[in-house]
Amino acid sequence: xxxxxxxxxxxxxxxxxxxxxxxxxxxxxxxxxxxxxxxxxxxxxxxxxxxxxxxxxxxxxxxxxxxxxxxxxxxxxxxxxxxxxxxxxxxxxxxxxxxxxxxxxxxxxxxxxxxxxxxxxxxxxxxxxxxxxxxxxxxxxxxxxxxxxxxxxxxxxxxxxxxxxxxxxxxxxxxxxxxxxxxxxxxxxxxxxxxxxxxxxxxxxxxxxxxxxxxxxxxxxxxxxxxxxxxxxxxxxxxxxxxxxxxxxxxxxxxxxxxxxxxxxxxxxxxxxxxxxxxxxxxxxxxxxxxxxxxxxxxxxxxxxxxxxxxxxxxxxxxxxxxxxxxxxxxxxxxxxxxxxxxxxxxxxxxxxxxxxxxxxxxxxxxxxxxxxxxxxxxxxxxxxxxxxxxxxxxxxxxxxxxxxxxxxxxxxxxxxxxxxxxxxxxxxxxxxxxxxxxxxxxxxxxxxxxxxxxxxxxxxxxxxxxxxxxxxxxxxxxxxxxxxxxxxxxxxxxxxxxxxxxxxxxxxxxxxxxxxxxxxxxxxxxxxxxxxxxxxxxxxxxxxxxxxxxxxxxxxxxxxxxxxxxxxxxxxxxxxxxxxxxxxxxxxxxxxxxxxxxxxxxxxxxxxxxxxx
Length: 614
Known about the structure:
- The protein starts with 6 loop residues before the first strand and ends in a 19-residue tail after the last helix.
- The longest helix is centred in the C-terminal third of the chain and has 18 residues, at 578-595.
- The chain is α/β, with parallel strands linked by helices.
- The chain has 16 helices and 23 strands.
- Strands 7, 8, 15, 16, 17, 18, 21 and 22 form an 8-stranded mixed beta sheet that branches. Strands 1, 2, 9, 10, 11, 12 and 23 form a 7-stranded mixed beta sheet that branches.
- Helix 1 (18-30) runs parallel beside helix 16 and helix 4 (121-130) crosses helix 16 (578-595).
- Strand 13 (284-285), helix 8 and strand 14 (299-300) form a beta-alpha-beta unit.
- It has a domain at 155-193 and 312-423 and 455-527: Glucose Oxidase, domain 3, CATH 3.30.560.
- It has helices spanning 18-30, 49-52, 108-114, 121-130, 159-170, 206-211, 271-281, 287-291, 328-331, 335-348, 368-373, 379-386, 405-408, 457-472, 514-527, 578-595; strands at 7-14, 36-40, 68-72, 85-89, 132-134, 149-151, 175-176, 188-191, 220-224, 226-234, 237-245, 258-268, 284-285, 299-300, 312-320, 360-364, 395-401, 416-423, 431-436, 442-447, 477-480, 529-530, 561-563.
């Protein structure tokens, strides 16, 4: 089938998220003559307060956020019949423009465990260093100090997070480390750095630091509000894409298709949901899923849309003492408080505007007593996966100073603390495919897989109990928000309400009955949610093992088509995934430069970040 192309570029990116920005930005800086087009369904984020002021990330957690797409999963018996909802970014910069900005990195063994040639940790560490400016500590051997992405401790320290660390080191009997992101340290309490520029107090995202700062290069084009429908092929060679106006970003625009040609390469970079959908609409995938949508199969690649993975998370609220620093007043929009912090932020970046609410965490592994208390359901998973991998944490426990407005549900205006627990290597696997709805419109056939494996809920149940004990001992603790906790039966020792202050550090732990444990388990099945870390659906694995791309990100069975985003990750990573998305971008830029005959080492210099103040 022939198409009339409205214009031609050398490289087209289908999606303008974190990884696409990194790859396109590096290649454009390396060879400004390359004609590069990024097609992004969402809208611009350039210097918009909601995206560059760190504290405003909470508005993107609301179901009404226009910068997010809500992916509704199939109802699951493991979630007591609930249909999980997984938001993903729908704006320039992708997740880097809306995430919580917490800085974590996966242990080196995660990359080694992928078993993919060229993607071993020893090959990736130079790229990890290349992409960052680590403002937290000098002279750390695995960190970088001249990269485009800034990492700092944020605009103002939160004292309550020191309380969390202090209790963790005494009651929880854990060590302290300044840096648990050195690719090996784990199971120690530590400060939690952020993707925030320590000088300006602005979010450090991929859009501003790789793309918007190259506005002088007219060969680097970014078209927003454009939804890529499919890749166009000639004899299994990708030669362009078909796109329309995005129906969410541009609801009143003409929905007719347009076509642009790519003379050298098409890169699908639409994330764990978008990338497999584009491939399936292009005829690449399992025949059963394509046939039901009326798509003619071009390549039989049954791994497309399979291997969906995420991390399982909970946020549990507590009352906090009056007078301490939290983000509650900012998140409630108390005008005089917002203005005060905004003025200070504009002067030197040093206010709660440049905060995400958390300065402390632990990458937690159970000790022998904890492992025993977790019971038999977790033991096989521990022995098979964790026992001999001491750098892999089971979960991250963290304190957040404030309860975001999107989660408040008419709670009284006061200070709150939130206990965050999320598991890093759930055993459960899901899938994402396209389907047609009853109205003939394309929908999503999404099975999240959350808690399908019986071992996955165990660390959540245990983590809830452990975090309760830590919080009860924090000096700023003032009790529990009842609606945010399991509804324990009346008379249970597990019932905790509002209190005047913490218990003693040496107070006995709460004793739970079998009935209490059932209530906790039910609570998590009804409340556990995404951590916005979706990955794996176009896995970089051998084709015979349901792989979709090879080690150089080429889609099997066709030419001139690559995938570059979190969907290529074959096995889960023990980290908030922004760091991995950036890393994949840097690696993909090197690979593509080599393919084009460009010296990949020249993909280094980027322009200064636009610093327009708001």
